[in-house]
Records
---
Amino acid sequence: MEQPQDAPALATAFPAPPPFWQSFTKENLERLKELRAVQTPPSKDYDAAKELPLRILDLPPELRLLQPPDQPADGKYRLYGDIYDLKTPLGSLQEQNVEQLYTPPGSPSGGSKAENFDRAFILKKLAKSLLLNFLELVGIMAVNPGQDPNAPPPPDGQERHLHAYEEKIGDLQTIFLNFHHLLNEYRPHQARESLILMMQDQLEKSKAETQGIREMKEKVEGILEGLSQAKLAEAVEMNGKGDQDDLDGQDVWAELEKEFD
Amino acid sequence: MADRLTQLQDAADQLAQQFVASLYYVHKHHDYALLSPTDRLVTKNGGNTAQADDDIDPKPADVFKAGQRELAQDLILKEQEIEYLISQLPGLENSEKDQEQLIKQLEEELKAAEVERKEAVKEKEAVLAKLESVIRSVKRP
């Protein structure tokens, strides 16, 4: 089952996923669920928000990896060989020595409605700037990549004069970084938004289920009612049924006799 | 499908890649221009080492134009995709406070719905028990 560890994996941008992803089959998940159901005391209501699913210690080896590990106790985790802190806040652009091209929108995704619209507006502006700057870059490259004829002379020669194309590429980079940064700031907002969507979904499902149960109940009640009425009717009929049968029989015989006469 | 923010970031990265690809195409496949009547084209083997390094592969004018056009179109399309994605960002109309309020409200509604659902289940079980007793009473005599 194990994939042979092949050499080209070293050349890919991201390492291959750890081999245990292969144990996440439907059957294995089903089995784990059953095992959990056996081990969880039925009286206790399981609250997913407060605790992780019960950890079962003596699992068969192929299921052992299906249990999520504990959360990192010290808040640090390792990703692609680097150690990260769970609580690292998103650094601001200034901290990363990148020029901020938009007016600071205050706390990310906080504040008033207008701010988020602003965010979309800024993003659109940045996207357009990207194209424009690229166009300018192409123009510079086409005519004279060395020097910008419109650039003012460097003040007092204190800075190394950049080639025009280097400047433009720097601009493009700044815009891209700004763009990504704005989007990253937006992530907590999107997370909340997803949560809202999920809750709405769940609410709808729960309501639909209740509705379904109610309808079923009504149906059964209707049947019960029908049954009891039918029974009554049957009981009434039972009393007069014998006579009726006889009568019917006579009718038939009478008809038959008429036919043969 | 990735979430919208990731899509948007991917699109931005793709745009950057397209920038590079466009420049590369123009750089690699442009034709040589004669700047004065006395110019003549020096081929790679003609001893011009600087150009031999560049490894330029000129395309016929019409093919080159078509290529440029396509790349430009792709750039515009990607740009439009980005703008569309921006306008589709989830919850632009909600502020953080709105969101928190909504979440709280939904939480309560969920609780109420759960209570109602449990009630319904109970009622259903009662009715089922009744039905069962009726069926049994029918069978017995």
---
Amino acid sequence: MADSQKSESLLIVDIGSTTTKIGLVDNVAGEYRFIASGAAATTITPPDADVLAGVRDAIRQIEARTQRRLLTVEGQLIAPERAGAQGVDALVAITSAPQPLRVAIVGLSREISLASAINAINGTHAVVVATLALDAIGGRWLPVRLPQEAQLDPKVVMTILQDPAVIAAETLARANPEVIVLVGGVDGGATTALYDIANLVASIVASSDENARPIIVFAGNSAARAQLANHLGTLTQLRPVDNVRPTLEAENLAPLRHELEALYTERKITWLPGLNTLASWTNVPITSASRAFQNVIRFLARRWNLNVIGADLGSAATTLVTARGEQSTRLVRADLGIGYGLERLLEQTGIERVLEWLPLEMNPDEAYARCLNHALHPHALPMTRDEVYLMHATARLALATAAQGVSMDGFDTVVITGSVGAYNSNYGALALLILDALQPHGIFSLTVDPLGLAPALGGLAAENPAAAASVLERDGLLTLGTVIAPTSRNRDGQIDLRIKVQPSGSGVINLEVVHGSLELVPLTTGQKATIEVRPAAGVDLPQVKRGVFKADIEGGALGLIIDARGRPLNLPTDPVKRRMQVQRWYWDIGGEVANG
Amino acid sequence: MANAYIPALAQMRAIKLARIRRERLLPSRGAVVVQVGNRVGALDIIAKSNAMGHLRSIPLARYLKTNEATLPKYLVKKPGEDIQARDIIAAKPEFFGTMRRVFRAPGAGRVAALYGAWLTVELMDTPFELKALYRGTVRDVMPRLGAVIEATGALVQGVWGAGGEGFGVLQKMVDAPDAVLGEEKIDVAARNTVILAGAGITETALRRAAQEHVAGVIVGSLQPRLRALVQELGLATIATEGLGERPMATPIFELLASLTGNETVLNVPGVKRGTARPEAFIPILMPSNTPDAASPLPTLLAEVSAPVRVVAGTHAGELGKIGEVPDRPRALDSGALAWGAEIELASGGRTFVPWENLELIG
């Protein structure tokens, strides 16, 4: 491969669970710019179980669109770039295609160590297939909790077995985890109970086929490490990390997350069919898409000293990343998606919650069937008005479910990526989707990833940070506008805000914004404006000091959005009124979908 | 047209005669009982497995009221030994040897391990027998795993399936691809047959089919709420179009209807990511002097005039051919910009369809 210091032209590859997206980046007049993209179905399942098939297909699309040769006749990448604009200097790749790690958590206390372990796992590409807790005080196994899809017949277990310890053991064996996370005990605390659960885990592991034994990650009382190594280390791979709950008051999630991330790479990413060849095309490791996306959000936060929240709405998973200064969090929900993950999303929310966000009437059975058919063809694009609204409704639910418990206050920028926003010019509908789902509070800018390649730019940062920054700033993100979203104790119709907008080159606009309304003041991309926001009594906007907020803002694809609908959003309970309300919001923000 | 490019498309097989090869694998290692060159029928057993055990760990030290250090000496059955249900696995003398505290095997299997205070036994499930399913010739044997069978016949793949495998004579139950099959048409004559429905099948018809020991169902689509019932009834079912109430594509219905009376197998490997599509296969015997007369499955090429099926949108389920391929993406009503092709629909007319919404069929 080319020397990474001289990579002027690059391909950025994002192998998703459904779609493989590739972008061509090149140095144009001293600046790195996005040139073209291609997208193909991800090929990791029969009959084309080879990621390269999809990668080559997407590259050939770029070849056709740019008349630039990138692959040899044999399908190998031409690198470094040759005279006559053939090939590229480098390629970087990220992926979210593998199935998540199947993780079981075994620990002492459900409320303490297990809760922390779940918090840590939520930041990784993993699904919890079973949680087993030994009540440390009573020494009794607590009732088993299983995810809905667990392949266990509870009738059989509960009638044959009455001993909670045996049920716990059987549950663990049947859950067939790839990784067992063992937690429990604060640092310096007693270790006896930990040995009890280690014995249980060891008995299951020792009885399993040697080639299929789960890896054990120990993230409990560090004083127990040596003895656990004797117990478990001889049976399978034992990977100790710092205690996820070192004290009753404090969590330490990063070491466990880091270990699971490493396991995901070792056990999942590197095992994708065809990945070895793709890896030989690149100088930098192929990383997870969620990690790459976190790089992007952290870059934005550092570059402009902002508090940023980003959401990647994928086919099989939803990722939520925040960055406030040097602090960054990542939440990966491998059970929430709007393609492959749609059925699991609906299992959690129910189809009725989807219907709440439709501006049109739809039979629940029909809506459910349509969603399931989309899960069977997750790459399909919505064509009809009904399909578009249905996709937007499920996207709202996936985002809202992932964001439960995440504070939406104090962000300066909200970024959305994923198929729902890529190459989509219905910016009003996109903005409404984001506002409805996340319900951010305050004054912030709303940004989408128009190419669907923002996470891949996070991967590019490892190869060529300057190129990643340049493309991100110039082509990678599209600002929809500035949003003013207060909370208010007012009733519908009462004035929430008085706003003065002074766009450059035109007259002053004075607005009295009533509670319950959603307003759009068009400001085109690049158009500057000065705003003065004066909230009424009982209205809260964190940025307002001494009764007024003044700022210079820039327009966007939409302009200035004033979301005075309040937080949390309240939808009418009457279905007819609710549909009219949702429809009105689509109209208000210019997001109405044409009849197909 | 310099920029026009046709990407690889998903594929759905629906073909009247082809030579296919299918891997038949045990769920866990076992013994393959056929050899390369053997001719096999659908119900012939080609491999067996006994290793479908599941593990049960027991806190034996607690049961015997002892500690883990002394536990090994009370074991009557050692790790690795076979056990039958109710066999005594461990016994500890009590009251100066006048009584024994025993632990009996919860089922047949073997003692897997004694670890610390825990004993693990592997309990045997019912032995598994792998059927050939595809009538044909064994072309390859993977020792302990399974075999590859080559077979000749008609193949129709589905979009969704459940209920495992089915085998029986194909029987057309409705006259049109948009008809819904009701219970009144299912009677004792349907026993051991694979029934062909149209757009759907009712819940009562599914229940009646199970009562009458119907071997399988091929249907255009299935209501989502009936998926669990299909699983519960263990009734092999394939939906060619999806879920809901979608008529079966007419050419597929006509192809299957023309094969009424032939033995048919349904193979439903599941609908999880990474698994093959569910399919119906109708073996067609070739004359013994021309066993290779049928061609292998043709490669489906994404090119102008290639037959396709639309999978979403207004024309979902319709068949057609790839027509003109624009060299620019087009804006959809959704606001999305998409690359795709003009499709000449079999029902007449042309419409632009994004590549993502097409699959090759044939």
